[in-house]
Amino acid sequence: METLISLVNKIQRACTALGDHGEDNALPTLWESLPSIAVVGGQSSGKSSVLESIVGKDFLPRGAGIVTRRPLVLQLHKIDEGREYAEFMHLPRKKFTDFAAVRKEIADETDRETVVNLTLVDLPGLTKVAVEGQPESIVHDIENMVRSFIEKPNCIILAISPANQDLATSDAIKISREVDPRGERTFGVLTKIDLMDKGTDAVDILEGKSYKLQFPWIGVVNRSQADINKSVDMIAARRREREYFQNSPEYGHLASRMGSEHLGKLLSKHLEQVIKSRIPGLQSLISKTINELETELSRLGRPVATDAGGKLYMIMEICRSFDQIFKEHLDGTRSGGDKIYNVFDNQLPSALKRLQFDKHLSMDNVRKLITEADGYQPHLIAPEQGYRRLIESTLVTIRGPAESAVDAVHAILKDLVHKSISETMELKQYPTLRVEVSAAAVDSLDRMKEESKKATLQLVDMESSYLTVEFFRKLPQDAEKGGNPTHSIFDRYNDSYLRRIGSNVLAYVNMVCASLRNSIPKSVVYCQVREAKRCLLDYFFAELGKKETRQLSSLLDEDPAVMQRRTSLGKRLELYRSAQADIDAVTWG
Ligand code: GDP
Ligand code: MG
Asked: Residue 63: CB within 6 Å of ligand 1?
């Protein structure tokens, strides 16, 4: 029993310490599932006295009027030598062994504002009228507060009724019946049996004949005000109480189940049963909570390393996992890389098609360029210059689609970088690093794009700089038209001659275009895609190596809210784990 109670106290105190039932409470609380004991009853009915005698020490303020103005939470701890000390929820770590000091702290705390929760609750007495100096609402306020405590299904109610008043007027019975109609968690306690009118007795009540409860009624004789004034101690008071029942002609037959000591034992037994019945539920609640905490903690990621090496390692690791995700996008493990192929397979060919070389090589244009190239002297055999100009001016238009392919792939890569950034869980934790990595990756892509543009346009320009002579040599030489120097100048510029030149050039340009259609993607992949896969963050890493601890720290500056959350989750997890270990020890041990 001792272990069970101390287990409950441990868990309950730990929960309270963590503010488990404070505002910031997304997690289920242990609080709700653990039993507490509260005393209820009218003012001066003997509540504090009863609680005190269960605990066995003098420390709750007692007297006429509302002394206990609000719930007090108190725990008792046993220490090795058998000496006891009290500890308040509102004063963690402060141990009171001097029970006079405990009494003072209660009185002081009663005047302070904080509301604390409890293991044993000494509730203020229920009243019927507001006395001088009290607000009218006090009667209801107290009643509501008391009710809020005892309506919790895990609250064991000690309903205190003074024997020197008619039971029919008992506030304790009235309110406990309201919250526990079947009396499953209510203990009826009859105080002040020694103060009953001569000639009357409480036998009917104590035998359960007047008002039936699940548990047997218990009569007690607490210390009177006179006893307290004379500082009669608890041990003496208990002895006197025992003697009172044993020697009383009315209660002698009930003596074995009367008195504070018996009440204490009864309560312990009941508490034990309640706790035992709650253990499986508690265990599953705890393990569920542990799971939730672990999930959230792993979602929040690891805490930041403290030394420079650790920080650098962390950053590199995070970057590596980003890089990995980025590669997966390109390789097809994740989506998006296929868009690049679409540029080569679709966008580039259709852009090339839209160039419409045949329009460029219209008769008029051919004539214009050929004539211009001739200058003041018409060509003699073949319009060499004219051919070159026609070819160059057509090929140069391919630069446009080539550049567009570079830009399109660049846009896709940038998109994949952003996608990968947001898919890198570890980066979520560090907003600054996220921004920096993303900027560094985009910078690299920009540099690669420039390189790619240079190389790709060079491919196009190279085609203009040197023509494939064989192509023209293989063309059928028509001696009659065009190739013959004996033709008159007028023949040389007639439509069919020009059409022939146009179609020769078109055939050549189409051939070149088909080959560029194949080589542009190679250049783009080589300069952009392959490079991005190979060394997207190389420059960033080089810069990283030069950074000092302070700068590394600023890269890993977590959102303070996240840091705080992690710490508090960690603490909670620790608490729940130790509670779990404690409970397992009780059940398996
Ligand atoms: P509370 O207001 O319900 O907490 O009641 P207290 O425990 O403060 O008791 C009120 C007064 O009644 C105190 O002076 C106690 O000494 C006295 N008292 C309580 N119980 C008994 C009892 O069983 N017998 C006698 N003679 N006096 C009692
Ligand atoms: Mg009291």
From this structure: yes
